[in-house]
Amino acid sequence: MDISLAIQLMVQGILLGGIYGLIAVGLSLIFGVMGVINFAHGQMMVLGMYISYWILVLVGLDPYLSLVLVAVVTAMLGYVIQATVVNRILDFPEAMQVVPLVSIGLIIENCILFMWGPDHRSPNTALGLESIHFGDVMIDASRLMAFVLAILITGLIFWFLRNNNIGKSMRAAADNRIGALVVGINVDRINNYAFALGAATTGAAGALLIPLIPVSPHLGHDFTLTAFVVVILGGMGNLVGALVGGLILGVAESMSTLWLPPTLKHVVSFSLLVLIMLFKPKGLFGGK
Amino acid sequence: MSKQKKIRTGKGIHRREFIKNSAIVGTGLMLPFGVPTLLRAAPRKIKIGSIQPVTGPLAVIGQGQRKANIMAAKQINAAGGIKSLGGAHLELLLGDSESKPEVGRQEADRLIKEGAVALQGPFQSGTAMAIATLAEQRQVPFVMDVAALDAITQKGYHYSFRVFITARGLVGGAINFLKQVVDMKGVAPKTAVVTNTADPFGKGMSGGFLKGLEKSGMPIKILERIQYPLGIQDLSGEVAKIKSLKPDLIFPVSRPGDSVILTRELYKQRVPLMGIYCPGSPGWYEPHVVKDLDKLILYVLVNVPWINPLSTVYQHANAAFKKEFNQTLDTNSAYAYTGTLVVADALERAGSVQADDIVAALKQTNFKDHPVLGGPIQFAENGDNKGASTGLLQIQPDPVPEKRVRVVLPKNFAQSQEIVFPWPQLWER
Amino acid sequence: MKRLYVLLAFILLILLVLPMFLEKYTLGIFIMIFYYAYLGQSWNILTGYTGHISLGHALYIGIGAYTSTYLAITFGLTPWVGMIAGGLVAVAVALFKGFLGFRFGLRGVYFVILTIAFAEITRLIVSHIEALGSFSGIFLDFNPSFWNFQFRGNKPYYYISLGMMVASVGVVRVLELSRIGRFMVAIREDEEAAQAVGVNSFKYSMIALSISAFMTALAGTFYANYIFYLHPNSVFGMGLSIELILRPIIGGMGTALGPIVGSFILTPLSEMSRAYFSKGGMEGLHLVLYGVLAIIVVLFMRKGILTYLAAGLNKIIRFKS
Predict the structure, then answer these.
(1) Chain A residues within 8 A of B231 when measuring between CB atoms
(2) How far is CA A272 from CA A249, A275, A281, in A?
(3) CA distance C229 to chain B (A)
(4) Can you count the helices (H) and strands (E) in chain B?
(5) What is the C-alpha to C-alpha distance for residues B116 and B361, in angstroms, rounded to an integer?
(6) Where is pLDDT greater, at A67 or B236?
(7) Would you state the pLDDT for residue B22?
(8) C43: pLDDT confidence band, cut at 50, 70 and 90?
(9) Which of A88, A267, A269, A273 to mutate to test the interface with C (most CBs of C within 10 A)?
(10) Range from A6-20, B1-15, B407-421 carrying the lowest mean pLDDT
């Protein structure tokens, strides 16, 4: 086995894993606070990718800079979706919540198709072809940047949940919904904010990804599933678990290319998913 | 099939008789105004279905194909249409295969329903296979302008014809030119990696090339064959593998999308090579690829059916294409252009729009006035073009991007006498 | 009730006679309506009646399609028999999946995710098996004959798919009236309560899953010999899994006619959308509509459009008489 190849793959895995973690944190947050599994999570991320692509093409603003704007837009969309649809299905049995959310994903995906067409879009960004070399190992500048920002954003979210009032209320609602109601927390409003925040993180992840991979309307499913794997791996509702799970998955997928064709990467993640669901449904770090 | 029956026994004859009668009456009424008015009054329309991958991973090529079909039809109509059918004009019905075989098949079915008497297209081998099957089912002639997969013409289908070269032909040309280059430059590459898109063309072509290389006795060892799905967006894992294998050459069978991603990744990961030699596939000479990759695509060698730079037909067609669409007529669009000409030529000789007459006329094709390298277009028993051949190109530096793609072999068609091999490394340019 | 049967018989009669008046292309639209209705009905048995939501049902379509096609190409086996083989393979996979799911207590969303994972893993693995065409898929040769399950015109495909659709309604109706059916509904309504009164939920869930998988696989064989092209993404894909559940959901899950009504409403929309909007990527518009309809139905019309339609029709019929 080629050591430098292995190291290269591991590095690439960690960098991508950071982004997986960010996407998964959003999903886990939504589940933790509301008990809803957002089947449209991947499509929201793809929307984030398209918005930052659009901003780049129209105004020339680099995705790393338009990140905040993208997050705000996806947050607003998330808020609307939660207030109109998700709110009404909170008391449905878990499985019945699937259909409306899958439908939302379907709607988002096909609106994207309508607006931007089916072709892949790959903008040329400033860092696009830059790379840093440590001996035999090459680090993609865009990937490194995305990783750093992903970790920063995740850290920001943790801080928010710990120190901000709204964030604290979210944690309260996540821990004990009835209790939260009892102490006067407006759970409906918290739900709206939580969903918006979850959408914002996944939208931001999209902005980080657009310099790395070309976007097309049907990318959503793959990322939704990947997010599921990470969240189940780390434990539903466990945010730290989501981040660590993301890193683990990123490395596992990347290293698997030593033995498997890279196009079989996802078989590794999905098989992992099945195994965890069967034998450790609470995830590696414990969840709900 | 029922449509054609109708023309023979139902509405069709009535329409013809009506025209005949009105012509007689009209002549009487209009003689004072001159015969030209009469002739302009009733050109029939012959519908031909053009199915190209106008959207999807092959969109940029597909759009060029469609434009070439349209231009060819316009030129034929301007020159008087199909004279043996009373100056009837060609009407192109447009279909989009979306670069997917099942969609191509549905579109072909739709165009047949809308009255297409012949089909052409679809650039992509998989889609061609699907349409050829449908054409056989519906008994409608199908002329492939670009599609190389051997299997399509090995099914015993009667209604399909191929203007383009076959994968086997491509392989023969590739090995032939590779030998010449290696001999000329006195350089001996020892190892190589083959990459291909895992679609029917990619697999058929690369498989054929591997076999051909083995039979040729050239001392190049193939270290690995890397396959990836059409439309892939990330080749970093594949390129990392290539780098660890340390090949002298890469033989890619690709599409414009993955060729760009592959080359950029080779640059980013600093993979040392003697060069890239494409045995025959898209992705290394299309105008938008040459522009996108800029310095990175220089010195790539490509064996591919190409336009004939010395042909006046090409020069006129290219000038017209540039004027109308602001685009160079490259090999793919030149073949699309030729495809329409071949269909029109067959209609002219058939003097009828019945499928079997068109098929009989196609079998007799001996078309010389085409813009591409190779002999006159003549179809063998299975529908393949006996006259098809290839040229070796190299992308060489030139201030004008269009002039960078140059024929270097065969010598008598060469636009550049110089061949650069091995190439300067991607990151040292 | 009798009036309903008369109405249905009348509609069936019209459907039987239609091919004499319609041309190939329009027949093709009906074929798709019947095909999706049949798929939705097969799914309905597992989800509508037994309550286990599957978002990976395309798995069985792919299994049916690839099995019968592989057997036909390699051994010259007629797809009529290959179809059954495909069904059996599907049942085997379903039993495995069901065992993992039900024995390990995967319920609700976890079961849904399991179904998705199975479909996706299979899709990826088949994409790498050369004998099954890997990424390029399989192109079926055109050799029309009854034993090859291939026909020149669309009429035979029309009658076969119509037959499959009608048979599926029959199967569901028989289940509805049988003990098995009642147990299935009991599981759907409240699994724990059902177990408490002695219903072996594992056994009946497996039965429902097997019937559903078998039926779905048959549709795969039909598809392969109608489209002449198989690709892992198109027969195992999530897009297909999602599309096939929309018709029964909107038409009415857990009813014998719901998927049929749903397909008659939705399928023409998708065909129109493709024919009129396909220039420039608008071909997904019908899916937006489907999504909106599905949300409306799940939020406000839980029992599906059929129930409301039937109620409305009842009013009209009563009014008329």
Answers:
(1) 120
(2) 9, 5, 12
(3) 7
(4) 14, 12
(5) 17
(6) A67
(7) 47
(8) very high
(9) A267
(10) B1-15
The CATH number of residue A110's host domain is: 1.10.3470
Average pLDDT along chain C: 88
Q: Per the CB < 8 Å rule, is A257 touching B241?
A: yes
Would residue A285 count as lying in a domain? no
- Residue predicted with more confidence, B277 or C28: B277
Rounded mean pLDDT of B3-31? 44
Instruction: Tell me the C-alpha distance between B116 and B93, whole Å.
Output: 7
Judging contacts by C-beta atoms under 8 Å, the chain C residues touching residue A83 are none
- Helices (runs of H) and strands (runs of E) counted in chain A: 12, 2
**A100 and C124 in contact by Cβ < 8 A?**
no
DSSP class per residue in A4-35:
HHHHHHHHHHHHHHHHHHHHHHHHHHHHHHH-
Q: Report the distance separating Cα A70 and Cα C92, nearest Å.
A: 47
In this predicted structure, the answer to whether residue A95 has a pLDDT above a threshold of 80 is: no
**Measured CA distances, B98 to B200, B426, C283 (Å):** 16, 33, 11
Alpha helix stretches (DSSP H) within B82-228: 101-113, 125-138, 167-185, 200-216
What residues are paired with A132 via a beta bridge?
Answer: A139
Higher pLDDT: A181 or B33? It is A181
Specify the higher pLDDT residue, C106 or C318. Answer: C106
Q: Is-contact B276 B301, C-beta < 8 A?
A: yes
In a domain, A126, yes or no: no
Range of the domain at A156: 3-117+137-279
Residues of C in contact with B134 (CB under 8 A): 228
| CATH fold for the domain made of C2-320 | ABC transporter involved in vitamin B12 uptake, BtuC (1.10.3470)
Instruction: Please determine, for the modelled complex, whether the ipTM score is greater than 0.85.
Output: yes
pLDDT of residue C40: 95
Task: Determine the average pLDDT of the residues in C155-165.
Answer: 94
With cut-offs at 50, 70 and 90, classify the pLDDT of residue C313. low
**Is the confidence at residue A164, as pLDDT, over 70?**
yes
Q: Where are the alpha helices (DSSP H) in B274-381?
A: 287-293, 312-325, 331-350, 355-363
Residue C104's SS3 state is coil
Judge: A107–C100 Cβ closer than 8 Å, yes or no.
no
Cβ contacts of C284 within 8 Å, gap of 6 or more: A109, A110, A113, A114, A217, C273
Q: Given the structure tokens 């797809």, which residue do they identify?
A: C79
Are C63 and C210 contacting, i.e. CB atoms less than 8 angstroms apart?
no
If we measure between CA atoms, which residue out of A264, A181, A176, A281 comes closest to residue A228?
Answer: A281
Between strands B89-96 and A137-140, the pairing is unpaired
Enumerate the residues of chain B whose CB falls inside 8 A of the CB of residue C25: 109-110, 113
Instruction: Look at chain A and report how many structural domains it folds into.
Output: 1
Token readout for C79 is 């797809």
Beta carbon pairs, A and C, within 8 Å: 118
Supply the pLDDT for residue A134: 80
Q: Do C109 and A277 touch (CB under 8 A)?
A: no
Q: Could you report the per-residue pLDDT of B97-106, keeping only the tens digit for each?
A: 988 898 899 8
- Structure tokens given for B129: 């296979």
At residue C321, does pLDDT exceed 80? no
Q: Is C112 on the interface with A (CB under 8 A)?
A: yes
Kindly indicate the confidence band of residue B7, based on its pLDDT and cuts at 50, 70 and 90. very low
DSSP string computed for A225-240: HHHHHHHHHH-TT-HH
- Chain-chain contact of A104 with C284 (C-beta, under 8 angstroms): no
State the average pLDDT over residues A147-166: 91
Structural domains of chain B, ranges and CATH numbers in brackets: 43-165+310-363 (3.40.50.2300), 168-304+396-428 (3.40.50.2300)
Residue B363 contacts residue B373 (beta carbons within 8 Å) = no
Is the CB of residue A168 less than 8 Å from the CB of residue A161? Answer: yes
**Residue A236 scores a pLDDT above 60:** yes
